Amino acid sequence: xxxxxxxxxxxxxxxxxxxxxxxxxxxxxxxxxxxxxxxxxxxxxxxxxxxxxxxxxxxxxxxxxx
Length: 66
Description:
It is a single chain. The chain is mainly beta and about 70 residues long. The chain has a single domain, classed as Ubiquitin-like (UB roll) (Roll). About 10% of the residues lie in helices and about 35% in strands. The protein is built from 1 helix and 5 strands; from the N terminus they run ββαβββ. It has one helix at about 20-25; strands spanning about 1-5, 10, 30-35, 40, 55-60. Strands 2-1-5-3-4 form a 5-stranded mixed β-sheet, with no helix packed on it. The radius of gyration is 12 Å and the shape is globular.
């Protein structure tokens, strides 16, 4: 049971949500959108969306400029 996050293998558990996945990462990025396979999910849905096993996940950080 495994998923790939930004191209790297990551452990997976049944019922894992995007919010659960983000707890595993200790970085300072604010992720506004996450792509699971070909589906984009916005932040308000991170607690609701369950990541299927063998998924390809891409964390898309919010980038601000000025």
